Amino acid sequence: xxxxxxxGALGLISLTTMCLFLLVKEGTKGIKSxxxxxxxxxxxxxxxxxxxxxV
Length: 55
Prior knowledge:
The protein contains 1 helix and 2 strands, in the order H-E-E. With about 55 residues, it is an alpha+beta fold. It has one domain (about 1-50). A two-stranded antiparallel ribbon has the order 1-2. It is rod-shaped, with a radius of gyration of 19 Å. Keywords: Membrane, Transmembrane, Transmembrane helix.
């Protein structure tokens, strides 16, 4: 009986996370969904902390 509860809880958690991955459009690496313009007129799509690029 307890194994069904554990499997059901894990299934619900995995289904929820898959739905969140499909619905959330923003990235997690500092990329904006919409570009923004600074005071100098330059259009940016990334946050300031992305100056040190990962290679």
